[in-house]
Write a structure and sequence with these properties.
Elements lengths: L4 E7 L6 H11 L18 H12 L5 H17 L2 E8 L9 H22 L2 E9 L4 H13 L5 E7 L11 H9 L3 E6 L5 H11 L3 E4 L7 H10 L2 E4 L1 H6 L11 H6 L3 E4 L11 H12 L3 H14 L4 H7 L1
Parallel strand pairs: 1-2, 2-3, 3-4, 4-5, 5-6, 6-7, 7-8
The protein binds hypoxanthine and zinc ion.
Hypoxanthine binds next to loops.
Length: 319
């Protein structure tokens, strides 16, 4: 039996199986054939184009019912990969355009499907609302208000994804402050496309306790020490980084170096079908490349559990 896995960084729409999205396109009579390869995978050239293909894929997710079906498809796949706990980015921008009333309906559908999947597959989902950096700070405020109004023991965090090269982390401080005041825990994508200073800015200007990717912190030994000391957790997604060309090969990825330096590293898939990965493949590749054994994987899983945003009762149930 596969070891139970804990995943902290998964974009709900980005986890949509391409066949599911293609099927919805046919059903809704929306022509999205341009985003698929002849083999049926997602087709894109680079990160910018990935974001655009992602947007197009989301055009068929037209209402709460489609998200309900999406959650079932995604959690079935995660559970089949041995994932028992999945912290998943949910986007009010894709769920009704950050309208609070619409968001509540989408969220109810997502939560209902997640609870059904928990009964069926034994996987627990907790939500992190994500704002989208390239839509700008004003739109991020709207996402933060959606998050704050629905915060609780199920919607547990707030974060930011999107194009890291747009604007600065501090431009989004209002959104992160509002989320923090509502009791949400915080993470932001940083240090994937920009270097160590971006990771510094994430911690300093937004006060996040986790960083999405964060791996380019490895370029600055002083920062690595600071992250280790402060107990900041990195949501590393090695397969994503290699597929998108942040690193040429997994051998060049700093996850093991960061771990050895005492940084809290965890393993996630990001947008698995886009990057041709799964949690099982990530684990197998790390074992092969860095000789990670059962003890290392157990330690990484414990790190992920400790850094999870859920309440302690949920954590104790999973552990
Ligand atoms: N990176 C940044 N933003 C995103 C991603 C990602 O992998 N997926 C969806 N939004
Ligand atoms: Zn991501």
């Amino acid at each position: 039996m596969a070891r139970p896995k804990v995943e902290l960084h998964l974009h709900l729409e980005g986890a949509a199986p391409p066949a599911f999205i293609r099927g919805l396109g046919r059903e809704k009579k929306i022509d999205i054939s341009g985003i698929f390869t002849p083999e049926g995978g997602y087709a894109y050239r680079d990160f910018e184009h990935f974001l655009s293909v992602y947007d197009t894929a989301c055009t068929v997710l037209i209402g709460p019912e489609e998200f309900h079906r999406l959650v079932h498809a995604v959690l079935e796949e995660s559970a089949a990969n041995g994932v028992v706990y999945s912290e998943t980015f949910l986007s009010p921008d894709f769920c009704g355009g950050c309208d609070l009333g619409a968001w509540r309906e989408y969220l109810a559908a997502i939560r209902e499907a997640a609870e059904q999947a928990e009964t069926q597959h034994g996987i627990t989902l907790r939500g992190i609302v994500t704002c989208i950096r390239h839509l700008g700070p004003e739109q991020a405020k709207k996402a933060a208000i959606c998050a704050a109004e629905t915060a609780g023991d199920w919607l547990v965090g707030f974060g930011m994804g999107g194009a890291e090269n747009m604007g600065e982390q501090k431009d989004f401080a209002w959104a992160f402050d509002a989320a923090r005041e509502a009791g949400l825990r915080l993470t932001t994508h940083a240090g994937e496309w920009r270097g160590p200073d971006e990771v510094r800015a994430a911690v300093r200007d937004l006060g996040v306790e986790r960083v999405g990717h964060g791996v380019r912190a490895a370029e600055d030994p002083a920062l690595v020490e600071e992250l280790a000391e402060a107990g900041i957790t990195l949501e590393c997604c090695p397969g994503s980084n290699v597929f998108l060309g942040v690193y040429d090969r997994l051998e060049d990825h700093p996850i093991d170096e960061l771990r050895r330096a005492g940084v809290n590293v965890t393993v996630s898939t990001d947008d698995p079908p886009f990057f041709h990965t799964t949690m099982r493949r990530e684990y197998a590749a790390l074992a092969r490349c860095f000789n990670w054994d059962a003890d290392v994987f157990d330690a990484v899983t414990k790190t992920a559990l400790d850094a999870a945003f859920c309440d302690t009762a949920t954590r104790d149930r999973i552990a």
